[in-house]
Model the fold of this input.
Amino acid sequence: MQYLLLIYEAENARADHTEAQQKEMLERYFAFNDYLKSKDAFIAGDALQSVATATSVRKREGKVVTTDGPFAETKEQLGGYYLVEAKDLDEAIEFASRIPAADLGTVEVRPLMVFD
Amino acid sequence: MQTRLEIQRVYREHHGWVLARLVRSVRDLDLAEDALQDALLTALDQWPVRGVPDDPRRWLVVAARNRAIDELRRRTMRSKKNDELEWLASLEREVAAGEDGPIRDDMLRLVFTCCHPALAEEARVALTLRAIAGLETEEIARAFLVPNATMAQRLVRAKKKIRGAKIPFVVPDEDAIDERVAGVLAVVYLVFNEGYSATHGAQVVRRDLCKVALRLGAALAQLLDDHPEAFGLLGLMLLHDARSAARASESGELVLLEAQDRGRWNQAQIAEGIRVTKQALRLGRAGPYALQAAIAAVHAEAPTADVTDWAQIVALYDHLLARAPTPVVALNRAVAVAMRDGPEAGLAEVDALADALDGYHLFHAARADLLRRLGRYEAAAKAYTAALAAPCNEVERRFLEGRLAEVRGAR
Done:
């Protein structure tokens, strides 16, 4: 079963990091990636640029309307994701809890739709 | 007619057992429930004519499982997926061979799934009552004072999440089990308290929740026999429930522990509660349930309120406070201190909790009671007024109003 792990955290918290902290964070993510791969669970994963670069798009009555910014203004923003293969929700939760951002932010676990 | 009632009784009593067996085989709660309903209809049809089978539980499992396999076969024919075909074949082989495995594990798996932390608390409660205790959706809805449709929706949504997000039917790993057991026990205690705090005489169905919780608690103590808190919770519920007849007066007014007619306590149940509590304490380091049960046991063992062993109760609260350092526990401890050392000493401890418990009616009620006993009626009246300003239930409100009138008259 595939699960999308959506990583939400406060962007400004990350911006305040010192260079050493950033390096440490990066290393923790590399270690997490290796862990997922060792479990044959890694399908995809990326970090996103800041919501300052986000554009929201809607099409209404045939007309494309774009607005600057994310879909919803929230205290924590979508900052990255992993797509993993897990045997059940317990394993997906286990993976999510190991994402470094789970320490301060929130990881939303969403099972992918399976079309029969 | 007799048979019909007998069937209903068998059905309710063994609902969790039979469903757990089915879920293990078919791995789908909805399918298992539907199949069991079908089996019940067949039983209602056949048993009055042919008589109740020797092993009705087994009969229900076999009948329901055959229904479920039929349904699975239909679905698999449509989808023609290889892995499903293989699984169905293995299931049929398993049934033919009569391999069932220990029922204990089946029950535990179902219990842990119903109480999975990824489900909302209210959904855990509803699922546990429906699947394990075998209550009808309408009964659960009435007990929790929500419309039938709301409760049905809650159950549907929970089952949809179990299936969709693939919440597994498994017993948690060693490193997670203590936390998960605590979660399961919390669900049962919530059911008990919902019944225990029900105050309206007409709502018998809510009071029945206590009996349901006791039944679940006894089943859990059997299933989780190496977990002291499972026994602790059962002991606690038995001891509280044993006093329920004395908790309200004829007119439905609240009667405090110290004023209760101890002759109306259920002594047989108290003995059982104490036995179970001792078992919890023997099994290992006492957890919060076992400690609360031990406190209830000390109360229960006192023939009159005057001879209560308050030193022992304070000592138990010290342990409880170390395990569960919450302001409410500290408040209860302070009240015990007042009983041991006098109201003055208790009042000092209660006052220290003012910041943490300002919005809690029982904090103000405890203060008011100590002030009343110290003869400081003016201050007591103020504190009763503060208690009445905080949320509390109808029976408590009447009790507090009575006390308020009393201290006003004494001024």
